[in-house]
Amino acid sequence: MMMALARQIPEADASTQAGKWEKSRFVGVELFGKVLGVIGCGNIGSIVADRARGLKMRVIAYDPYLSAERAVDLGVEKVALEDLYRRADFITLHVPATEQTRNMIDAKAMATMKRGVRLINCARGGLIVEADLKEALASGQVAGAAMDVFGKEPAKENVLFGLPNVVCTPHLGASTTEAQENVALQVAEQMSDYLVHGAVSNALNMASVTADEAPRLAPYLKLAEQLGSFAGQITETGLQAVSVDYEGEAAELNTRPLTACMLMGLLRPLLTSVNMVSAPLIARERDIDVRETRRDRAPDYQTLVRLTVTTEQRRRSVTGTLFGGGKPRIVEIEDIPLEAEVSSHMLFVRNNDKPGLIGRLGTMLGDAGINIASFHLGRKGEGADAIALVAIDQPVPDALMDQICVLPDVVRVRALRF
User: Fold this and answer.
1) Is 197 assigned a catalytic role?
2) Taking the model in full, what pTM does it have?
Protein backbone atom coordinates (compact mmCIF):
# COMPACT_ATOMS: atom_id res chain seq x y z
CA MET A 1 0.00 0.00 0.00
CA MET A 2 2.84 2.36 0.84
CA MET A 3 4.59 1.65 -2.46
CA ALA A 4 1.35 1.96 -4.42
CA LEU A 5 0.69 5.29 -2.75
CA ALA A 6 4.20 6.64 -3.23
CA ARG A 7 4.24 5.84 -6.97
CA GLN A 8 0.50 6.30 -7.71
CA ILE A 9 0.41 2.82 -9.21
CA PRO A 10 -3.38 2.17 -9.21
CA GLU A 11 -4.19 5.49 -10.85
CA ALA A 12 -1.35 5.15 -13.36
CA ASP A 13 -2.55 1.64 -14.24
CA ALA A 14 -6.10 2.85 -14.88
CA SER A 15 -4.82 5.74 -17.01
CA THR A 16 -2.51 3.55 -19.10
CA GLN A 17 -5.14 0.87 -19.70
CA ALA A 18 -7.51 3.62 -20.85
CA GLY A 19 -5.10 4.30 -23.72
CA LYS A 20 -3.43 7.34 -22.21
CA TRP A 21 0.29 7.87 -21.75
CA GLU A 22 0.48 10.39 -18.92
CA LYS A 23 4.05 9.82 -17.82
CA SER A 24 4.60 13.38 -16.62
CA ARG A 25 1.38 13.28 -14.58
CA PHE A 26 2.49 10.44 -12.31
CA VAL A 27 5.66 11.72 -10.67
CA GLY A 28 5.97 9.89 -7.37
CA VAL A 29 8.29 9.96 -4.38
CA GLU A 30 10.91 7.45 -3.22
CA LEU A 31 10.75 5.51 0.03
CA PHE A 32 14.52 5.43 0.36
CA GLY A 33 15.69 7.76 3.12
CA LYS A 34 12.15 8.78 4.13
CA VAL A 35 10.95 8.72 7.73
CA LEU A 36 8.26 6.14 8.46
CA GLY A 37 6.18 6.75 11.58
CA VAL A 38 4.73 3.52 12.99
CA ILE A 39 1.85 4.02 15.44
CA GLY A 40 1.52 0.78 17.38
CA CYS A 41 4.65 -1.36 17.42
CA GLY A 42 3.27 -4.75 18.45
CA ASN A 43 3.45 -7.88 16.31
CA ILE A 44 2.36 -6.37 12.97
CA GLY A 45 3.91 -2.95 13.60
CA SER A 46 7.31 -4.49 14.39
CA ILE A 47 7.17 -6.58 11.19
CA VAL A 48 6.37 -3.44 9.17
CA ALA A 49 9.31 -1.67 10.84
CA ASP A 50 11.61 -4.53 9.87
CA ARG A 51 10.45 -4.42 6.23
CA ALA A 52 10.81 -0.63 6.12
CA ARG A 53 14.38 -0.81 7.41
CA GLY A 54 15.08 -3.17 4.51
CA LEU A 55 13.94 -0.39 2.20
CA LYS A 56 16.45 1.92 3.94
CA MET A 57 13.76 4.02 5.55
CA ARG A 58 14.30 5.63 8.94
CA VAL A 59 11.69 4.24 11.32
CA ILE A 60 10.28 6.07 14.33
CA ALA A 61 7.61 4.47 16.50
CA TYR A 62 4.99 5.48 19.03
CA ASP A 63 3.67 2.81 21.37
CA PRO A 64 3.06 3.32 25.12
CA TYR A 65 4.01 -0.33 25.73
CA LEU A 66 7.22 -0.29 23.68
CA SER A 67 10.23 -0.45 25.99
CA ALA A 68 13.50 1.31 25.17
CA GLU A 69 15.27 -2.07 24.98
CA ARG A 70 12.69 -3.49 22.56
CA ALA A 71 12.99 -0.38 20.37
CA VAL A 72 16.75 -0.93 20.13
CA ASP A 73 16.19 -4.59 19.17
CA LEU A 74 13.78 -3.53 16.43
CA GLY A 75 16.12 -0.82 15.17
CA VAL A 76 13.53 1.91 15.62
CA GLU A 77 13.53 5.20 17.49
CA LYS A 78 10.85 5.43 20.15
CA VAL A 79 9.22 8.89 20.12
CA ALA A 80 6.22 10.75 21.50
CA LEU A 81 3.15 10.86 19.28
CA GLU A 82 3.53 14.61 18.71
CA ASP A 83 7.14 14.10 17.60
CA LEU A 84 6.08 11.34 15.21
CA TYR A 85 3.47 13.61 13.63
CA ARG A 86 6.03 16.37 13.20
CA ARG A 87 8.79 14.24 11.62
CA ALA A 88 7.20 11.42 9.60
CA ASP A 89 6.95 11.44 5.80
CA PHE A 90 4.73 8.35 5.91
CA ILE A 91 2.55 7.29 8.86
CA THR A 92 1.18 3.76 9.20
CA LEU A 93 -1.35 2.68 11.84
CA HIS A 94 -1.19 -0.64 13.69
CA VAL A 95 -3.40 -0.20 16.75
CA PRO A 96 -6.74 -1.76 17.74
CA ALA A 97 -9.98 0.20 17.73
CA THR A 98 -10.49 1.29 21.35
CA GLU A 99 -11.95 4.31 23.10
CA GLN A 100 -8.43 5.76 23.20
CA THR A 101 -7.64 5.18 19.50
CA ARG A 102 -11.02 5.81 17.87
CA ASN A 103 -10.81 8.94 15.69
CA MET A 104 -7.24 9.51 16.89
CA ILE A 105 -6.26 10.93 13.48
CA ASP A 106 -8.56 13.94 13.18
CA ALA A 107 -8.20 17.45 11.78
CA LYS A 108 -6.27 18.60 14.85
CA ALA A 109 -3.78 15.72 14.59
CA MET A 110 -3.32 16.17 10.83
CA ALA A 111 -2.66 19.88 11.28
CA THR A 112 0.39 19.04 13.42
CA MET A 113 1.82 16.63 10.86
CA LYS A 114 4.56 17.39 8.39
CA ARG A 115 3.03 19.02 5.32
CA GLY A 116 2.80 16.49 2.50
CA VAL A 117 2.61 13.48 4.81
CA ARG A 118 1.14 10.24 3.45
CA LEU A 119 -1.13 8.09 5.66
CA ILE A 120 -1.64 4.32 5.50
CA ASN A 121 -4.31 2.51 7.49
CA CYS A 122 -4.48 -1.29 7.20
CA ALA A 123 -5.37 -1.76 10.87
CA ARG A 124 -8.96 -0.93 11.81
CA GLY A 125 -11.67 1.36 10.50
CA GLY A 126 -12.55 4.36 12.63
CA LEU A 127 -8.99 5.31 13.56
CA ILE A 128 -9.03 8.15 11.02
CA VAL A 129 -11.81 10.73 10.74
CA GLU A 130 -12.49 10.27 7.03
CA ALA A 131 -14.20 13.65 6.50
CA ASP A 132 -11.22 15.42 8.10
CA LEU A 133 -8.83 13.41 5.93
CA LYS A 134 -10.72 14.51 2.80
CA GLU A 135 -10.25 18.17 3.78
CA ALA A 136 -6.56 17.65 4.55
CA LEU A 137 -6.06 15.96 1.17
CA ALA A 138 -7.80 18.85 -0.59
CA SER A 139 -5.58 21.42 1.15
CA GLY A 140 -2.35 19.50 0.48
CA GLN A 141 -1.56 19.08 4.18
CA VAL A 142 -1.83 15.34 3.51
CA ALA A 143 -0.36 14.37 0.13
CA GLY A 144 -2.03 10.98 -0.09
CA ALA A 145 -3.71 8.16 1.77
CA ALA A 146 -3.90 4.38 1.38
CA MET A 147 -6.92 2.80 3.09
CA ASP A 148 -7.65 -0.90 3.47
CA VAL A 149 -10.21 -0.37 6.25
CA PHE A 150 -13.07 2.06 6.70
CA GLY A 151 -15.37 3.37 9.40
CA LYS A 152 -18.30 1.53 7.82
CA GLU A 153 -17.79 -1.78 6.07
CA PRO A 154 -18.63 -3.05 3.51
CA ALA A 155 -17.71 0.38 2.21
CA LYS A 156 -20.04 0.81 -0.75
CA GLU A 157 -19.86 4.60 -0.39
CA ASN A 158 -17.24 6.78 1.25
CA VAL A 159 -16.15 10.44 1.19
CA LEU A 160 -12.67 9.32 0.11
CA PHE A 161 -13.80 7.43 -2.99
CA GLY A 162 -12.89 9.08 -6.26
CA LEU A 163 -10.14 11.31 -4.86
CA PRO A 164 -7.05 11.30 -7.08
CA ASN A 165 -4.52 10.89 -4.25
CA VAL A 166 -6.20 8.00 -2.42
CA VAL A 167 -5.69 4.22 -2.79
CA CYS A 168 -8.61 2.11 -1.51
CA THR A 169 -8.87 -1.66 -1.12
CA PRO A 170 -11.66 -3.84 0.39
CA HIS A 171 -9.98 -5.00 3.63
CA LEU A 172 -7.48 -7.28 1.89
CA GLY A 173 -4.87 -7.35 4.67
CA ALA A 174 -4.99 -11.10 5.33
CA SER A 175 -6.32 -12.16 1.93
CA THR A 176 -3.45 -14.20 0.55
CA THR A 177 -3.36 -17.85 -0.50
CA GLU A 178 -0.54 -18.54 1.95
CA ALA A 179 -2.33 -16.95 4.90
CA GLN A 180 -5.53 -18.93 4.31
CA GLU A 181 -3.61 -22.21 3.95
CA ASN A 182 -1.56 -21.56 7.11
CA VAL A 183 -4.66 -20.84 9.17
CA ALA A 184 -6.33 -24.05 7.99
CA LEU A 185 -3.23 -26.14 8.73
CA GLN A 186 -2.78 -24.60 12.17
CA VAL A 187 -6.38 -25.33 13.18
CA ALA A 188 -6.14 -28.93 11.95
CA GLU A 189 -2.85 -29.53 13.78
CA GLN A 190 -4.21 -28.11 17.04
CA MET A 191 -7.35 -30.25 16.87
CA SER A 192 -5.18 -33.30 16.17
CA ASP A 193 -2.98 -32.54 19.18
CA TYR A 194 -6.03 -32.31 21.42
CA LEU A 195 -7.72 -35.50 20.14
CA VAL A 196 -4.55 -37.61 20.11
CA HIS A 197 -2.56 -36.21 23.04
CA GLY A 198 -5.07 -34.11 25.00
CA ALA A 199 -2.94 -31.01 24.48
CA VAL A 200 -4.70 -27.62 24.29
CA SER A 201 -2.86 -24.73 22.61
CA ASN A 202 -3.87 -21.20 21.67
CA ALA A 203 -7.13 -21.21 23.61
CA LEU A 204 -8.91 -17.93 22.99
CA ASN A 205 -10.34 -17.12 26.39
CA MET A 206 -8.53 -18.81 29.28
CA ALA A 207 -5.39 -20.49 30.55
CA SER A 208 -5.33 -24.12 31.70
CA VAL A 209 -7.45 -24.71 34.79
CA THR A 210 -8.56 -28.08 36.19
CA ALA A 211 -12.15 -28.82 37.20
CA ASP A 212 -11.16 -28.90 40.88
CA GLU A 213 -9.45 -25.52 40.73
CA ALA A 214 -12.16 -23.63 38.85
CA PRO A 215 -14.63 -22.87 41.73
CA ARG A 216 -11.85 -21.69 44.05
CA LEU A 217 -10.17 -19.57 41.38
CA ALA A 218 -13.33 -17.85 40.10
CA PRO A 219 -13.46 -14.94 42.62
CA TYR A 220 -9.68 -14.52 42.40
CA LEU A 221 -9.87 -14.27 38.60
CA LYS A 222 -12.37 -11.44 38.97
CA LEU A 223 -10.13 -9.71 41.53
CA ALA A 224 -7.07 -10.16 39.31
CA GLU A 225 -8.77 -8.64 36.28
CA GLN A 226 -10.03 -5.68 38.35
CA LEU A 227 -6.55 -4.98 39.75
CA GLY A 228 -5.02 -5.20 36.27
CA SER A 229 -7.70 -3.01 34.72
CA PHE A 230 -7.32 -0.40 37.46
CA ALA A 231 -3.54 -0.21 36.96
CA GLY A 232 -3.87 -0.20 33.17
CA GLN A 233 -6.33 2.69 33.15
CA ILE A 234 -4.12 4.94 35.29
CA THR A 235 -0.90 4.04 33.42
CA GLU A 236 0.04 6.40 30.59
CA THR A 237 3.70 5.60 29.85
CA GLY A 238 5.54 2.52 28.62
CA LEU A 239 5.46 -0.55 30.85
CA GLN A 240 8.80 -1.97 31.91
CA ALA A 241 7.99 -4.47 34.65
CA VAL A 242 5.05 -6.11 36.40
CA SER A 243 5.35 -7.73 39.83
CA VAL A 244 2.55 -9.75 41.43
CA ASP A 245 2.64 -10.72 45.12
CA TYR A 246 0.35 -13.48 46.38
CA GLU A 247 0.02 -13.64 50.14
CA GLY A 248 -1.88 -15.89 52.53
CA GLU A 249 -4.45 -18.20 50.92
CA ALA A 250 -3.76 -16.71 47.47
CA ALA A 251 -0.21 -18.08 47.61
CA GLU A 252 -1.59 -21.64 47.69
CA LEU A 253 -3.46 -21.31 44.40
CA ASN A 254 -2.57 -22.06 40.78
CA THR A 255 -1.44 -18.48 40.15
CA ARG A 256 -0.59 -18.81 36.44
CA PRO A 257 -4.15 -18.06 35.24
CA LEU A 258 -4.44 -15.31 37.86
CA THR A 259 -1.34 -13.52 36.60
CA ALA A 260 -2.49 -14.00 33.00
CA CYS A 261 -5.88 -12.50 33.88
CA MET A 262 -4.15 -9.57 35.61
CA LEU A 263 -1.98 -8.93 32.54
CA MET A 264 -5.10 -9.07 30.35
CA GLY A 265 -6.75 -6.35 32.45
CA LEU A 266 -3.55 -4.32 32.48
CA LEU A 267 -3.07 -4.39 28.70
CA ARG A 268 -6.72 -4.17 27.64
CA PRO A 269 -7.08 -0.34 27.78
CA LEU A 270 -4.90 -0.19 24.65
CA LEU A 271 -5.30 -3.70 23.24
CA THR A 272 -8.96 -4.65 23.25
CA SER A 273 -8.36 -8.06 21.63
CA VAL A 274 -5.97 -9.23 24.36
CA ASN A 275 -7.05 -12.30 26.36
CA MET A 276 -5.71 -14.55 29.12
CA VAL A 277 -3.66 -16.61 26.67
CA SER A 278 -2.23 -13.79 24.57
CA ALA A 279 -1.50 -11.38 27.45
CA PRO A 280 1.67 -13.16 28.73
CA LEU A 281 2.89 -13.55 25.13
CA ILE A 282 2.34 -9.86 24.42
CA ALA A 283 4.18 -8.96 27.63
CA ARG A 284 7.19 -11.05 26.58
CA GLU A 285 7.06 -9.65 23.06
CA ARG A 286 7.23 -6.12 24.46
CA ASP A 287 10.01 -6.94 26.94
CA ILE A 288 7.80 -6.38 29.97
CA ASP A 289 9.43 -8.21 32.87
CA VAL A 290 6.74 -10.20 34.73
CA ARG A 291 7.51 -11.70 38.15
CA GLU A 292 5.54 -13.52 40.83
CA THR A 293 6.26 -13.93 44.53
CA ARG A 294 4.39 -15.93 47.15
CA ARG A 295 4.21 -15.49 50.89
CA ASP A 296 2.45 -17.93 53.20
CA ARG A 297 1.13 -15.17 55.44
CA ALA A 298 -0.57 -11.85 54.76
CA PRO A 299 0.05 -9.44 57.66
CA ASP A 300 -3.43 -7.88 57.79
CA TYR A 301 -5.63 -10.16 55.67
CA GLN A 302 -6.32 -13.84 55.23
CA THR A 303 -5.61 -13.53 51.53
CA LEU A 304 -4.00 -10.70 49.53
CA VAL A 305 -2.98 -9.95 45.94
CA ARG A 306 -0.73 -6.98 45.15
CA LEU A 307 0.05 -5.74 41.62
CA THR A 308 3.05 -3.44 41.18
CA VAL A 309 3.65 -1.80 37.81
CA THR A 310 6.92 -0.12 36.84
CA THR A 311 6.78 2.35 33.95
CA GLU A 312 9.32 4.65 32.34
CA GLN A 313 8.44 7.39 34.81
CA ARG A 314 7.31 5.81 38.07
CA ARG A 315 6.24 2.80 40.09
CA ARG A 316 2.69 2.26 41.38
CA SER A 317 0.82 -0.53 43.12
CA VAL A 318 -2.74 -1.61 43.81
CA THR A 319 -3.72 -4.29 46.31
CA GLY A 320 -6.89 -6.33 46.70
CA THR A 321 -8.46 -9.07 48.79
CA LEU A 322 -11.67 -11.08 49.04
CA PHE A 323 -14.32 -10.33 51.64
CA GLY A 324 -17.24 -12.51 52.77
CA GLY A 325 -18.65 -14.65 49.98
CA GLY A 326 -15.60 -14.06 47.79
CA LYS A 327 -16.33 -10.43 46.97
CA PRO A 328 -13.30 -8.56 45.54
CA ARG A 329 -12.16 -5.38 47.32
CA ILE A 330 -9.36 -2.90 46.67
CA VAL A 331 -7.63 -2.28 50.01
CA GLU A 332 -4.57 -0.22 49.08
CA ILE A 333 -3.50 2.10 46.27
CA GLU A 334 0.10 3.32 46.03
CA ASP A 335 0.74 2.52 49.71
CA ILE A 336 -2.37 4.42 50.80
CA PRO A 337 -4.90 2.19 52.61
CA LEU A 338 -8.59 2.36 51.73
CA GLU A 339 -11.40 -0.09 51.14
CA ALA A 340 -13.42 0.04 47.94
CA GLU A 341 -15.68 -2.22 45.93
CA VAL A 342 -15.21 -1.79 42.19
CA SER A 343 -18.23 -0.55 40.22
CA SER A 344 -18.92 0.09 36.52
CA HIS A 345 -18.02 3.80 36.60
CA MET A 346 -15.50 5.31 39.00
CA LEU A 347 -13.38 8.41 39.47
CA PHE A 348 -9.82 8.06 40.72
CA VAL A 349 -8.66 11.34 42.30
CA ARG A 350 -5.18 12.03 43.67
CA ASN A 351 -5.09 15.15 45.78
CA ASN A 352 -3.45 17.06 48.58
CA ASP A 353 -5.17 16.38 51.90
CA LYS A 354 -6.74 19.82 52.41
CA PRO A 355 -10.18 20.81 53.76
CA GLY A 356 -12.99 21.46 51.28
CA LEU A 357 -12.01 19.27 48.34
CA ILE A 358 -14.50 16.49 49.04
CA GLY A 359 -17.33 18.99 49.33
CA ARG A 360 -16.36 20.81 46.13
CA LEU A 361 -16.08 17.53 44.20
CA GLY A 362 -19.42 16.24 45.50
CA THR A 363 -21.15 19.53 44.72
CA MET A 364 -19.72 19.60 41.20
CA LEU A 365 -20.93 16.05 40.48
CA GLY A 366 -24.32 16.77 42.02
CA ASP A 367 -24.80 19.95 39.99
CA ALA A 368 -24.09 17.89 36.86
CA GLY A 369 -26.75 15.34 37.84
CA ILE A 370 -24.23 12.57 38.50
CA ASN A 371 -25.17 10.42 41.49
CA ILE A 372 -22.43 9.22 43.85
CA ALA A 373 -22.91 5.57 44.80
CA SER A 374 -20.00 5.42 47.24
CA PHE A 375 -17.03 7.56 48.27
CA HIS A 376 -13.81 5.90 49.45
CA LEU A 377 -10.97 7.93 50.96
CA GLY A 378 -7.42 7.27 52.07
CA ARG A 379 -4.35 9.31 52.92
CA LYS A 380 -0.73 8.86 53.95
CA GLY A 381 -1.12 11.32 56.80
CA GLU A 382 -2.66 14.62 57.81
CA GLY A 383 -2.04 17.17 55.05
CA ALA A 384 -0.14 14.61 52.94
CA ASP A 385 -0.96 12.74 49.70
CA ALA A 386 -4.54 11.49 49.57
CA ILE A 387 -6.72 9.41 47.28
CA ALA A 388 -10.44 9.42 46.58
CA LEU A 389 -12.09 6.52 44.73
CA VAL A 390 -15.63 7.57 43.84
CA ALA A 391 -18.23 5.14 42.49
CA ILE A 392 -20.77 6.94 40.30
CA ASP A 393 -23.89 5.85 38.43
CA GLN A 394 -22.92 7.18 35.00
CA PRO A 395 -19.80 8.29 33.12
CA VAL A 396 -18.45 11.82 33.57
CA PRO A 397 -18.56 14.04 30.44
CA ASP A 398 -15.21 15.34 29.17
CA ALA A 399 -16.13 18.96 29.93
CA LEU A 400 -16.83 18.10 33.57
CA MET A 401 -13.60 16.12 33.80
CA ASP A 402 -11.74 19.25 32.70
CA GLN A 403 -13.43 21.23 35.50
CA ILE A 404 -12.56 18.61 38.13
CA CYS A 405 -8.92 18.60 37.02
CA VAL A 406 -8.53 22.29 37.89
CA LEU A 407 -10.12 22.09 41.34
CA PRO A 408 -7.76 23.37 44.05
CA ASP A 409 -5.51 20.65 45.52
CA VAL A 410 -6.39 18.10 42.80
CA VAL A 411 -3.23 16.48 41.47
CA ARG A 412 -4.66 13.95 39.02
CA VAL A 413 -8.04 12.62 37.93
CA ARG A 414 -8.89 9.55 35.87
CA ALA A 415 -12.27 8.22 34.81
CA LEU A 416 -12.36 4.43 35.19
CA ARG A 417 -14.68 1.86 33.61
CA PHE A 418 -15.00 -1.77 34.69
Assistant:
1) no
2) 0.61
